[in-house]
Amino acid sequence: MTVMITAREGSNYLNSFEEPHVVLVEGKEDQALVVALIEHEALQGFHVHDMIGKDGWTGKLRAICRVRGFGKVVSLGLVRDADNNGRTAWTSCRTSIAAARLPLPNIPGQLQPGRPSVAVAIIPGVDSTGALEELCLPSFQAEHMACVDGYFRCLASPDASSKAIVQAYLAGLQPSRRDLAVAARHRALDLTHPTFNSLRDLLQEMNSA
Amino acid sequence: MYESLQIDNFRGLRHLELPVLAPVTILTGRNNAGKTSILEALFLHSAGPRAAQALLTILRPYRLSGGGLNVEFSRNSTPWEMAFYNRDPGEPIRIVAEWDGRQVTVGLSVPRDRVSGSIAPNLQSAPASSTSSTSTLSALPSFSYSMRITIDIESRQSPAPEHREFIQTITAQLGQALLGPSGLQQTGGVSLELKPETDSDALILAYFLGPQTRSPQAELVQRYTNIRLDGKERLFLHAMQAIAPEMKKIEILSTGTPTLYVTFRDGPPLPMTVMGEGIVAVANYAAAILENKRGLILIDEIENGIHYTALERVWQQIGRAVKDSGAQVVASTHSYECVQAAYSAFRKSPNQLQLIQLQSDDDSQAATVAADYDLETLEGALEMRLDLR
User: Do A185 and A157 form a contact (C-beta atoms < 8 A)?
Assistant: First the structure.
C-alpha cells in the first residue's frame, strides 16, 4: 500500500506500522493534504497518522514509539500548525521529540539522521502564524479569490478569518467542497503550487531516507 | 514494592526486562506473548527459598489437571524442564528484581545429577500382568528430581552481598502405568514429595489468582476473617459493591463449613459459592489485596467474568485497597475496555498505574520486548486508539 492512513474518525485500532515512513499530523485536514501530496508525488511506503489535535503530543509521541513495528520505521515527520507562533510550535515539537528520546532536529523541515530520522514541518512556516488555511490560500485561483474578497466586502466583514475565506472559496467550487480535507481528497487543490514546496521537499527527503 | 524485573531463561522468555513496575501494573500482549510467564516469574521470585514449591504449584499441567502433574518419566527429562526456556535446564532461570531499594536475584537450576532412580530396575522387579501389547505395572517406579535455588541480595546500605543456596528434591511416585510398545505410559496420577522442607520464609507473600486458580472458599473465609479483625470490612464491602451495587452485607455463616455470605437489599443471605464468576473474582481480588499487606497480588486475566460497565469501579476499588494495604498488584488482561477503565480509574494518580505491552522484537521476531506506558503515554495511546492489547 502506498499510503496508510490511521486514526481517522471511525478507523480501527492502530496495531502496527508496516511502512518505512511515518508522518504525524494534528488533524484530518492536514492528514488529507499530506496524503494528497504523497500521492501527487507518487511516493511509496508512507503511513500518515492523525494525532487527534495538538494537545498531549509528548505522551502521544511516546505512545507512537511503542507501536509494534516502530523499530523498523526509517523516517518520522511531524507536521504541526504554527497557530499563534511558529517558533513556539517548533519548540513544543522538539520538547516532545526529546521526551520520546528520538533524534532531535535542529532546523525546521530538515531530517535529523538517526533511527528513525526525524523532521518537523511547521505550517505555513516556522516564522509565520496560522495553520493549514494559511498554507493553502496562496494556491487558490486568483480570479476566484477576487470574487471571495468581494463577497466578504459585500458582507462588510473585511477582516474575515482565513478559515472563513477558505470555506467560502471551497463552497464556490464546482462541485463545492465542504472543507480542505474533502478538497484534498478530491484533488481540488493545486498541489503543484510553490506554497506546498517545503512540505513536498520534506516528504521527498523522507522518501529518500 | 517491586520496582523493576529482569527474567532470563524462563518459559518462553529468553531475556526480558521490565524497567518500571508500579503499585498497579497491567500486562497486555497477544496470546503466548508471556504475560502469564511474567506473573509466574514474580511468583517464583517472591517465593525465594520456597521457589521449588512455588514452581510445582504453577506448572501449567498441574494447574490444568486440577491436582495431578503430568510428569514425563524419563531419565533424560525432569518435570522442572517445562519452566526453562526451550525446556533446556542447561541454562539457569534467573529472575532479578529491584525491590524496596535492593537488588534481589533468584536463580533456579537443575544440578548435573538431576535425575536419580531409573525405569529399568523397577520394571524388572515389577510384577506385570501382560496382555499382547501392554503390561499393567503394579510396582511402579519413582524418580527424584533436584533443583538448586540461589538467592543473592545486594543493597546500597550493606556493602557485602548476601548469598543463600538451597537444593530441594521432588520424588515422584507414579500411581498407575502401562508398559506398552512405545514405553511407559502414565495412566494415573503422580504423588510428589518435596524435600527437605524449607524453614525459610518466602521473600514476599504473594497470591496468584487466575481463571483456574481462584481461592478456595476456606481461604477466602480466612482472608475475610483477617480483614474483619483488621477493621477493613467496609473497604471489602465497597469493593464488592463495585460489581454488585445492591450488595448490603457480607458475613461469615456456618452450616457445617464456614462460608462467606452476602445479602442483597433486604433479601436473605446467600452463600458466595452460588454467586456469579465476576462477583467471586472481585471477592478474591479484594480479599487478597486487603489482607496481604505490603504483599504481591498476581492476577491472570483480571477482566474475566466482569461486565465492562463495572470495570472502572473495580479498578477504583483496587486502587483504594492497594493504597490502604500497601500491596502491589500485577494483572494481565486481553481487554481494551479493561485498560481504558484502568486509565479512567487512575488518571488522577500518575504514579499508581503502569501498563506493559509485550511485543515481538522488531529485529528478532522470536524475542519478546516490553513496551511500557506511564499514565501520560497511556492517555495518548488511548486517545489515538493505538492497540494496547
Answer: no
Low-confidence winner among A108-117, B322-331, B361-370 (lowest mean pLDDT)? B361-370
ipTM above 0.90, yes or no: no
Cα gap B190→B176, rounded to integer Å:
8
> What is the average pLDDT value for chain A, to the nearest integer?
91
Shortest distance between the Cα of B357 and any Cα of chain A, in A, equals 9
Write down the domain spans for chain A: 4-130+194-207, 132-185
Beta carbons of B380 and A63 less than 8 Å apart: yes
Q: How are the residues of chain A apportioned to helix, strand and coil, as percentages rounded to the nearest 5?
A: 45, 15, 40
Q: What is the rounded average pLDDT of the residues B13-42?
A: 95
Nearest CA in chain B to A26: B384
Grid-cell match 464556490, residue found: A172
Cell of A60: 502521544
CA distances B158 to B1, B97, B104, B165, B201, Å, are: 19, 17, 13, 19, 21
For residue A74, pLDDT over 80 is answered with yes
Q: Which CATH number fits domain A4-130+194-207: 3.40.30, 3.40.50, 1.25.40, 2.60.120?
A: 3.40.50
| CA-based R_g, chain A, Å | 17
Q: Which of residues 61-100 of A touch B (CB under 8 A)?
A: 61-64, 66-72
Q: Which residues of B touch A59 (CB under 8 A)?
A: 376-381
